[in-house]
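Task: sequence in, structure out. Protein: FAD-dependent monooxygenase.
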Amino acid sequence: MDQVGFALAVGGQRAGLLGVGSSPGAPSVSLYTIEDETTEYDDDVPMTLTELQDSIRRVLGAHLPLAGSTRLSRFTFKARQAERYRDGRILLAGDAAHLFPATGVALNAGLLDAVNLAWKLAADLHGRAPAGLLDTYHAERHLAGARTMLHTRAQVALRRGHDAAAEALREVFSELLADEQPLRRMGAMVAGADIRYPMPGTNPLAGTFAPDLTLHTDQGITGVAELLHPARPILLDLADRPDLRKAARAWGQRVDVHTAKTGRRSADVLLIRPDAHIAWAAPIDEPADTAAPALREALSSWFGTP
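Result:
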């Protein structure tokens, strides 16, 4: 949105928030209200313009005339997460696995569920999945879902109160987000990019999202994200390590190998899964006699015996 305005009203037993926003070039404006209500709505019954006007009246204490609408929807705060994302041949993802009490995150979380599950399920269906691969779906995405539940509940707590203490909390929190580091941290949390999946070993890169490095290759300049477009795992050699490329040669039908240079590297070689998470990393200048066996073990653990 290029312009967003907010009106806050407190009165009697009711309190809430009215948000008004417009998008560039759009002939209409967006309105939404937030209020604590005990009314149970039947989602099979379409929302009406009168229902929205009644909510605005409760929040503002005044009538706001509305001429028409193009889309009306309700959102009810729910915080639910399935105990298990996998039970035998039943796999849960997206809204079937979790419902979050704040808007703007469910779609992203559901897509990350699907991306995590898809390559593992494909490997299993094609008979090349190592033992326990499908079980890692629950271990990883349940952890991510719990993290998303944490910050969405925090969002609800931040906007729920309307007394002086709640206003002070929001003001302090807004000041913190004016600084780059807290803003980046909160952005990564909301995007689900701060998750570090549990991985064997002690390398701090393992389990994290691969950074979208600018890569200089023989074919020109590219990025990690572009290399992942075929949805295949990649072995990214950033230090010209023929010893480690040789160690991965037996997995050539399953793993794409790329050699490139980048401005700043935190590892010699990265083994990146199709969901863009780092499965293994070779520390800078790690000797071949320790790096090569560790790489072969990681390749077998994630992509099966060649």
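Helices lie at 49-60, 106-125, 135-160, 164-176, 180-191, 224-227, 242-247, 288-303.
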